[in-house]
Write a structure and sequence with these properties.
heterodimer; A: 276 residues; mainly alpha; 12 helices; 0% strand; B: alpha/beta; D-Maltodextrin-Binding Protein, domain 2; three-stranded parallel sheet; 15 helices; globular
């Protein structure tokens, strides 16, 4: 009779399972099926074809956009993770009168609309270039422009806030007497931070990094404004194709990205299992 | 440590600096709105690289350029945006002697737009806003905007989610000018759209054409080129010009005043209006290029489509949408009234 409580069937888990399948995975399945559909719009099944994959592999612009997107996401993630972690540490560890303001400054970008941040970043860059470019031309003979670099800087700024918030949550659970003990036992501040604090909050750091990567990967609102000429990213390509474009080619690309993502997750899990 | 720092700084500077070398033409265009083969031909002939960037609406493109982003050599805005940008001194005036192929441009088209002398813009493609419908589902079809009031297709039709298009169709139906600045006329048109609103399923842009193909919707207000593409998928779909009249829009080539590669921009515009190139491009995008020689080179099945080659009467019934400056707010106010239920 003791097990009765556990074996009792509940409606709720079943509901959650089905809701997850319907809202998370069925849309992906629809995309996958449509990538083989001869119909361009994907409304009706018109027979099997591989022509979208063929078109995808022959379109160098999509691959250029994908390469740019991945480069931007990787660099922005690494930078935002390092800066965001340090930022969270400083916010958590030190106390002074301005700390509330600092917290708000880090938190604010999360709630400001994308389009506003995009435009304001663009205005900032334009202003900056107007000052710096004459100087650079005289000394080095070069000129700064909007491009991949400005996109990376913009992405770091918003990813940083996400990382800081996630890591901060982890730090609040961390027992700082361990850190002090390390200091007592002869570690300097850096050693104590890297050997004691960082390993303990690693899951938070990784979660923040993953979040940054996905956010950077599909950002449109901010990227649209800070992108320069010739720095096409995948979201810009896809939004641009909405009016006249061909969604079927994008379906094919999505399927390839999905396969790569699933394979990566699978391999990482296998590696972690072996470690244990 | 200092060496590493210096090296990092140099790398950053290298990334920031614009790379020189091969001649590059930077174009800002709608996505998938030009044949990739045609672009390749241009690159080969002029020994250069064409870098295409994309925008998804005239307004976002304008906002970006106005804030100082850009530096493009060639942009493809719609006519009303082109006129507005010209008024704000954002565009270069064109040197006609460098564009000999403009002699092929259809004079009928030019007589209808503000920049009829091609002082600052050259037409690229034209589309008409008419009615797309499913021949199997809609009985007793009539080529009229009044179809949107018909009870028997209630909940099966869709209007464009664009104030100038939806109110414009109502204005034309009532016999007014779709560019009117008269508040009383706009108000009466808004009343008509409110009547239609109660009959239609929704206001929509991109998804409606897919739903028309799949058979969910039966009759939609839509753009001509989209319907030609849809025809490949569902042979029961037809595009018609409503008898009361209809709006046409055109996208134009313009050279912004801060363009750096003006020579190549001129070469590109002239290249795109070479009859055989313009024809090849039309086969890809399926919109009308107002180039009289190119239209003659099209294969029969495209040449006979009214949306590519309208008759004289059909062309005469088409009206442009003009930039109304501050008076655009009359349309926005009417649109708010329509969207909020019209009471």
């Amino acid at each position: 009779m003791k097990d009765h409580y556990l074996t009792k069937r509940s409606f709720f888990p079943k509901f959650v399972t089905w809701a997850t399948i319907v809202f998370f995975y069925i849309p992906l399945l629809v995309v996958a099926v449509n990538s083989f559909n001869r119909s361009k719009g994907g409304g009706v099944w018109k027979g099997f074809t591989l022509q979208w994959y063929q078109q995808l592999f022959s379109d160098s612009r999509i691959w250029e956009a994908l390469r740019n997107t991945l480069v931007i996401a990787s660099i922005a993630t690494v930078a935002a993770t390092v800066l965001g972690t340090l930022c969270a540490f400083a916010l958590h560890r030190y106390r002074n009168r301005l700390q509330k303001t600092h917290y708000m400054l880090v938190y604010l970008p999360l709630i400001v609309p994308d389009i506003l941040r995009g435009i304001s970043m663009l205005l900032l860059f334009v202003l900056l270039f107007a000052w710096v470019n004459p100087l650079l031309r005289q000394t080095l003979g070069i000129r700064m422009n909007l491009g991949i670099t400005t996109i990376i800087i913009a992405h770091i700024t918003f990813c940083l806030s996400y990382v800081a918030m996630v890591v901060l949550g982890r730090l609040q659970d961390f027992d700082f007497s361990l850190y002090e003990a390390a200091l007592d036992l002869g570690a300097n501040k850096f050693q104590a931070f890297f050997k004691v604090v960082v390993p303990a909050i690693m899951p938070g750091i990784l979660a923040g990094a993953l979040l940054s990567f996905t956010l950077s990967l599909d950002d449109y609102g901010i990227t649209f404004f800070v992108a320069g000429k010739g720095s096409l990213t995948l979201p810009i390509y896809i939004y641009g194709s909405m009016k006249h474009g061909n969604p079927a080619v994008i379906n094919a690309l999505s399927v390839i990205l999905l396969i790569v993502t699933f394979l990566t997750v699978y391999v990482v899990q296998k590696l972690l299992e072996d470690k244990k | 440590m200092r060496k590493v720092f210096l090296f990092a700084l140099l790398c950053l500077a290298g990334l920031l600096a614009s790379c020189g070398g091969r001649n590059v033409l930077y174009i800002y265009n709608w996505g998938d709105y030009i044949s990739p083969e045609v672009v390749k031909k241009f690159e080969k002939e002029f020994n250069c690289r064409v870098a295409l960037d994309f925008f998804d609406s005239n307004e976002s493109m304008y906002a970006k350029l106005k804030a100082g982003g850009g530096g493009y050599d060639l942009i493809v805005p719609s006519t009303y945006m082109t006129d507005m940008m010209y008024d704000q001194k954002m565009l270069r005036e064109l040197d006609r002697s460098r564009l000999p192929n403009l002699k092929y441009i259809d004079p009928d088209y030019l007589s209808k737009v503000r920049d009829s002398e091609m002082k600052y813009s050259v037409p690229y493609l034209v589309s008409f806003t008419g009615i797309g419908y499913n021949k199997k589902k809609v009985r007793n079809f009539e080529p009229s905007w009044r179809m949107f009031e018909r009870d028997d297709i209630r909940g099966r039709c869709v209007l464009l989610n664009d104030p100038r298009q939806a109110i414009g169709a109502a204005l034309i139906t009532l016999g007014f000018d779709p560019n009117t600045r008269n508040p009383a006329e706009i108000s009466r048109a808004a009343d008509l759209v409110i009547r239609w609103r109660k009959n239609i399923a929704k206001f929509d842009v991109d998804e409606a054409k897919r739903s028309l193909i799949s058979g969910e919707f039966w009759l939609i207000q839509t753009y001509s080129g989209d319907m030609l593409q849809a025809l490949d998928e569902n042979e029961n779909i037809e595009f018609v010009f409503p008898k009361e009249g209809y709006i046409f829009t055109a996208d134009t080539f313009v050279i912004p005043s801060d363009a750096s590669n003006v020579d190549l921009a001129y070469a590109f515009i002239n290249f795109m209006h070479r009859p055989e190139i313009a024809a090849e491009n039309m086969k890809f995008v399926k919109y009308r290029c107002p180039n009289t020689e190119a239209l003659k080179l099209l294969p029969e099945e495209l040449k006979n489509r009214p949306s590519i080659n309208p008759s004289k009467a059909q062309w005469d019934a088409a009206r442009p949408t003009l930039d109304l400056g501050v008076d655009t707010r009359l349309y926005n106010a009417a649109w708010d009234r329509i969207k909020s239920g019209g009471d």
